[in-house]
Amino acid sequence: MTSLDTNRFAHRHLLDIARLGAGDINQLLDLAESYANLSRTPDKKQSILRGKTQINLFFENSTRTRTSFELAGKRLGADVINMSVGSSSVKKGETLIDTAMTLNAMHPDVLVIRHSDSGAPHLLSQKVDCAVINGGDGSHEHPTQALLDALTIRRRKGRLEGLTVAICGDIQHSRVARSNIALLNIMGARVRVVGPTTLVPSNANKLGAEVFYTMAEGLKDADIVMMLRLQTERMQGSFVPSIREYFKFFGLDKEKLKHAKPDALIMHPGPMNRGVEIDSEIADDLNISAISEQVEMGVAVRMACLDLLTREGK
Ligand code: NCD
User: Fold this and answer.
1) What's the CA-to-centroid distance between 176 and ligand 1, angstroms?
2) CA–CA separation, 8 vs 118, rounded Å?
3) If you measure from the C-alpha of residue 105 to the centroid of ligand 1, how many angstroms do you get, rounded to a whole number?
4) SS (HEC) of 13-62
5) How many angstroms separate the CA atoms of 76 and 35, rounded?
6) What is the pLDDT at residue 179?
7) Which atom of ligand 1 is nearest to the CA of 174?
8) What is the CA(61)–ligand 1 centre distance, in A?
């Protein structure tokens, strides 16, 4: 089978959303939509990437993103290799370049990298001959997460333009928030960030988001409520008085959700901390929660990225 999309993609790497235009995003989402449909059929294995090698280079722990990239590559027929490298045992900078040179000598066609340093995928892309996909770098960007979120929203709401999206919680440490703010602005949605003053960066409005410090104001008439995990591993010092207090003011429950539109859609990139940023009753209600659809769309979006970035003649 040949690809479901025959147009060239304008970029060699997927390093961040900021570099993409609306046309690129639509091309990725349209192709991902067809892969999502294909993934629901019994015969979902393709051969578009047969003979191609994909290396997943994860310097940070990850279950869902790594599995999703692995499955996406395998579904397209690629040979997929996973390398997990504990970031604590790795010296930054030089070692990343050394690893890059070693991998490059093995002639991969695409490298997926997750790293705790912002900018690591960009550095890698300058050192290797193949396509590089950013699977999350520090608190900088997580472009495939924003793309899968956009696909989920588009399928449920029919569009992105004109929607009000409230991104809530630990914005400060969130690469998911940064990529989503960028993508939603490009696609004409209205973006809000909601959280305690300690967890909302002071430049959030410059990034293209309206800032709110209470859930009542931030969720008012929102179409989409996107909850984020408290990323304690990135916190140095104390950002919230206590988990109980955090849930009381910023955890999503039925009461706070009443401020949003009656048909508001709930999202969360995972992994979820139930009872910290979201109540189980809401997370598990399939009528309002799109959380498992986000996981499904993750595979489809990554298939589209792998397909478009490994085309011959790039
Ligand atoms: C996100 C990440 O790693 O940035 N998770 C993910 O990709 N599955 C969000 C998070 O860790 O909270």
Assistant:
1) 7
2) 28
3) 30
4) CECCCCCCCHHHHHHHHHHHHHHHHHHCCCCCCCCCCCCCEEEEEECCCC
5) 10
6) 98
7) 4
8) 10
Among the listed residues 104, 269, 82, the one whose alpha carbon sits nearest the alpha carbon of residue 170: 269
- Tell me, using a 6 A CB cutoff, whether residue 176 lines ligand 1: yes
> Does the beta carbon of 65 lie inside 6 Å of ligand 1?
yes
With beta carbons less than 8 A apart as the criterion, state whether 234 and 195 touch: no
- 3-state SS, 106-127, equals CCCCEEEEEECCCCHHHHHHHH
Instruction: Give, for ligand 1, the residue of 62, 145, 301 to mutate: max count of ligand atoms closer than 8 Å to Cβ.
Output: 145
Taking the chain (314 residues) in consecutive chunks of 10 residues, what is each chunk's mean pLDDT?
A: 72 97 97 96 94 95 94 98 70 75 94 95 95 97 98 98 98 96 98 96 91 98 96 75 90 97 97 94 96 97 98 70
The predicted pLDDT at position 79 comes to 98
CA of 182 to the centre of ligand 1 (A): 17
Q: In sequence order, what are the residues at sequence separation of 6 or more whose Cβ sits closer than 8 angstroms to the Cβ of residue 9?
A: 24, 27, 28, 308, 309, 311, 314
270 lines ligand 1 (CB under 6 A): yes
